[in-house]
Design brief:
Elements: E1 7-13, H1 20-31, E2 37-43, H2 48-56, E3 60-62, H3 74-84, E4 89-93, H4 96-108, E5 113-116, H5 131-135, E6 142-145, H6 148-157, E7 165-167, H7 184-191, E8 199-203, H8 212-221, E9 226-230, H9 236-245, E10 252-256, E11 270-273, H10 284-291, E12 296-299, H11 304-307, E13 314-317, H12 322-334, H13 336-353, H14 356-373
Parallel strand pairs: 1-2, 1-4, 2-3, 4-5, 5-6, 6-7, 8-9, 8-11, 9-10, 11-12, 12-13
Length: 374
């Protein structure tokens, strides 16, 4: 529900599948009404799993606004939608069809527009913003980057004017995550995981850029641990085949898509990320792990060095460096006190630097500033 004097905000996205950027959008849609905005979410295609969660939370979510990306009338359809709902400002996720048709539609309706970019390049290594996206960049009064390094990348390599860039770190609610190490056994029992094994896990869609193959190869070299994979995706069959070839299939737990990751994180001794440099920027999954007081072990990609303090809240290794990753994993496996110290430091860092409340408040300030300029 909005408060008196709420300004009508439309959040534009393609389809809200499960991912870090979509989780950020979910938090904004749920919390911005408390900052004076009447929020409506418009999905150009299907609402997706996150869209359905928003509906259950009472957020207005419309879908199939312009479901065919190549439809030349998509811009008109979105413009009509914005006008019919009295939108006063548009917030756009960095889905390509949204950046193109959404920007044009908002400009047609003379709305201020804010665009959030969550990628550092695409999975194939190409720029985050295509030629067409860059051409329409001047239509967005503010482009939100999710870290200082990300803002520098967008300015230096993607051509986004520095004066249009705002930095808003992704954030999570530490209160949603249990940081008590004594809850591990109960969490494992609930999830059907072995009580006494050393469990390290990855929370990420099973996509090529997440490089789960590296995790499986490391697992094959560390026979005293087990791997928990949380997420689903197109690579699942290939990854299962690789696990079979490496003879580690009995030590891999395939959890699939988990709606409440917070209930599973206490079961893990370490939360890892083995991503390639492409795409990864400031992953929400590791923020959630830190909020749950779990030590993190990740490749040094995107802006992770701004999140994970190497040796203080977790460890960072060079991308694709399996030897270094294995060494750090074995250090963590052999030292429970080290895991406890790193985990508690990570939780404190999230509570200090990367909260959902601060993320929402900063976004609200940007939106209010753009409205005031108009």
């Amino acid at each position: 529900m909005g408060v008196a004097g709420s300004r009508r905000l439309t959040i534009l996205a393609d389809s809200l599948v499960v991912g870090g950027a979509e989780r950020v959008l979910q938090a904004l849609a749920e919390d911005l009404p408390g900052e004076g905005f009447l929020v409506r979410v418009a999905c150009l295609r299907d609402a997706g799993p996150v869209g359905e969660q928003l509906r259950r939370a009472g957020v207005e979510v419309d879908e199939r606004i312009a479901p065919w990306p190549r439809d030349p009338f998509s811009t008109l359809r979105i413009a009509r939608y914005l006008a019919s709902h009295g939108s006063e400002i548009a917030y756009m996720l960095d889905h390509s069809n949204v950046l193109w048709h959404g920007r044009l539609a908002a400009a047609w309706c003379q709305l201020p527009q804010v665009c959030a970019i969550h990628r550092t390049r695409r999975a194939d290594g190409s720029p985050s913003l295509g030629v067409a996206d860059r051409a329409l960049g001047r239509l967005s009064e503010s482009v939100i980057a999710v870290s200082e390094g990300h803002a520098e990348y967008l300015s230096s390599f993607e051509g986004v004017p520095r004066g249009r860039l705002d930095v808003v770190y992704n954030g999570v609610d530490p209160g949603r995550f249990n940081g008590d190490p004594g809850t591990a056994t109960a969490a494992r029992d609930r999830q059907g995981l072995p009580r006494d094994a050393f469990l390290w896990g990855i929370v990420a869609a099973l996509r090529p850029e997440k490089n789960h193959e590296m995790a499986l190869r490391v697992l094959a070299r560390d026979e005293d641990s087990q791997l928990v994979l949380i997420g689903s995706g197109a690579r699942e069959e290939a990854l299962r085949e690789l696990a079979g070839r490496l003879n580690v299939q009995e030590r891999v737990h395939w959890m699939g898509q988990v709606e409440d990751v917070g209930a599973l994180l206490p079961a893990l001794d370490v939360v890892a990320l083995t991503s390639h440099p492409a795409v990864e920027t400031f992953p929400v999954s590791l923020l959630e792990a830190m909020a749950a007081a779990r030590p993190t072990l990740a490749t040094r990609v995107g802006s992770l060095a701004e999140m994970v303090l190497d040796g203080e809240t977790g460890y960072l290794v060079a991308a694709s460096d399996e030897d270094a990753f294995l060494q750090r994993l074995q250090e963590l496996r052999s030292d429970a006190q080290l895991r406890l110290r790193l985990g508690q430091a990570g939780r404190e860092r999230v509570a200090t630097c990367f909260t959902r409340r601060e993320m929402v408040a900063q976004t609200a300030q940007i939106l209010a500033r753009q409205l005031a300029r108009r």
